[in-house]
Records
---
Amino acid sequence: MQFDTKIAVVIRTDLEVWQKLNVASFLAGGIAASFPECIGENYEDGSGTQYLSLIGQPILIYGADRAQLSRALERALARDVKPALYTEDMFKTTHDAANREVVRAVARTELNLVGLAFRAERKVVDKILDGLKFHT
């Protein structure tokens, strides 16, 4: 199935594996919270057991270095695409309010980005991520 929109998560490649998984999870949650229309129906197995719904379209995961993340952020904002973000400082906090505080304390050009997520029209996301490769 071809979707009109694309969901992309960009993760800094020099992170520890647990950090990459953590960042990807938080960023996917940001997309789900901001775009409830992308959530599918609940699941049910053959025994009738109910399960939670998931995002109903693929999420493409890209790798980037710090400069590429900053460039993707600027490209997104120039195209009026509001991203979800995760910064390195957020690894040191223990709750959502503290995460917002550490982001608010830093100017955009100085953010130590470790991850971004976008959901927009396919072509727009492609332009934002131009030159990035899938994460390996």
Note: The chain has one domain: 5-36+53-134.
---
Amino acid sequence: MTWLRAIAAAGLSVLMPGAGHALIRDWLRALVFAGLYFSAIWFFFPTEMIAAAGSMSEAMDILSAETDTIDQFVLSFLVLFAAIDATFRAAGFPPTSNNDGDGPSCPQCGKELDDDLEFCHWCTTRLEPLEPDDDDGTQTRDETPQP
């Protein structure tokens, strides 16, 4: 299912940079990419001339006449970079494991878990119930993902 989520994040990022990151709940990156994209549109496109256009075809004519290759490259680069970043983040690269916590971690996404839940509240992977550990009397969780 991770690959499907990665494809969906990439597709949303192509349509609107930041939307793919919002899908994977990476809110800071979603705001950064959306902010960069809208700032680049405001900076590179003749927004006043486009707003004053009478029809959509007239607006597209103004857009193609007033926008040079560098401006189009910058916007395309932002869209491509947002799509690639959202794809890799949705696929789990780089791994986002929190090894600094004391509690158990999810075998699927690597994030820290609450001891009383039977599923990962980050990626909804079902977990095995707690079993007592023979060595020191503490409980451990069998962290094998269930289909």
Note: DSSP finds six helices and two strands in the chain.
